[in-house]
Amino acid sequence: LDPRRVGILRDTHPTELVTYETEPDLVYEYKPNLDVFFKSVRFRTNSRGMRDEEYALAKPPNTFRVAVLGSSFALPAGVEIEDAFHSFLEERFNREFAPTRYEFLNFAVGMYGPSQFLAMLRHRALAFDPDLVLLSVSPLAAPRLLSEWNYAPPREVLDLVPSGPRSYFAKLLESRLKLGPPTFRIEPQTSPSGVPERQDVISKLGEISRETGIPFVVVRVEYDARDPSAVEREVEQRVRDEGMLYVDTRAAFQGTNPRDFWIYELDPHPNREAHAIFADVIAEFLRAHHLLGR
Predict the structure, then answer these.
(1) Helices 201-212 and 114-123 meet at what angle, rounded to 10?
(2) Could you say which of 15, 97, 165, 221 has the lowest number of CB atoms within 10 Å?
(3) According to the 3-state scheme, what is the secondary structure of the chain?
């Protein structure tokens, strides 16, 4: 009931944050110059609708740019932007490799799927002349990398998120007394069917990577150390077959309790501690594969 944390009691509805005046395959993107609270933390966007600082379109001299694509895990939902894994990476590499400047540009949008990651890359990210692309893939997005690349979800997809006043205390009490359904579950993952050969998202990403010469890294961001599913192993192999790189953060969480990394008890989005570990894993991977322009 602390009024300073009122964002927990009443989340801003996602539709209040977005505009539909955009390319059809993006479906929606964030409004520019937002300054609101979302999932109890400050949520600001720049003049281009990115949850990030302002960037010039032209890359400054002696600058290494990384385009970060993804959905709510990369946004990140419920975490201050300074505590996102890509913010940690930006700060770390700028400190370690000065005077070279590193810019991690955050193009993530909540509830985006892989086809929208691809659209954001084509319509927005490539214009900033990135030297590297990091594609953050959450548990729900992983199997959909095998979906058709030009699929666009209906605009009403954001209406699936509950809106209106919500009492965190009431929801917490309901959960602890087991008066309602489980607050979070992961459905079994299956490969999408009926996708024409070479028309899935992974194939299109590989094609763009080869055409532009930009290295692409698919990052499976996850704090639950369970073994990869058969679908995830299929995705990893397909990514490698297309000449891209793949890194999975789960091994770094061995021996931990996944719930310790939730932003709060009823919301499984990764918290600051999870993002710090994601950053450690990704930094080591980028160094080992000589992907930092050095």
Answers:
(1) 20
(2) 165
(3) CCHHHHHHHCCCCHHHCEECCCCCCCCCEECCCCEEEECCEEEECCCCCCCCCCCCCCCCCCEEEEEEECCCCCCCCCCCHHHCHHHHHHHHHHHHCCCCEEEEEECCCCCCCHHHHHHHHHHCHHHHCCCEEEEEECCCCHHHHHCECCCCCCHHHHHHCCCCCCCHHHHHHHHHCCCCCCCCCCCCCCCCCCCCCCCEHHHHHHHHHHHHCCCEEEEECCCCCCCCCHHHHHHHHHHHHCCCEEEECHHHHCCCCHHHHEEECCEEEECHHHHHHHHHHHHHHHHHCCCCCC
Query: CB of 235 within 8 A of CB of 202?
Result: yes
Q: Which pTM value belongs to this model?
A: 0.92
Taking the C-alpha atoms of residue 11 and residue 17, their distance in angstroms, rounded to an integer, is 11
Q: What does the block give as tokens for 208?
A: 């763009």
Q: Mean pLDDT for the chain?
A: 90
* 261, two tokens: 């990394």
pLDDT in tens, 237-263: 999 999 999 999 999 999 999 999 999
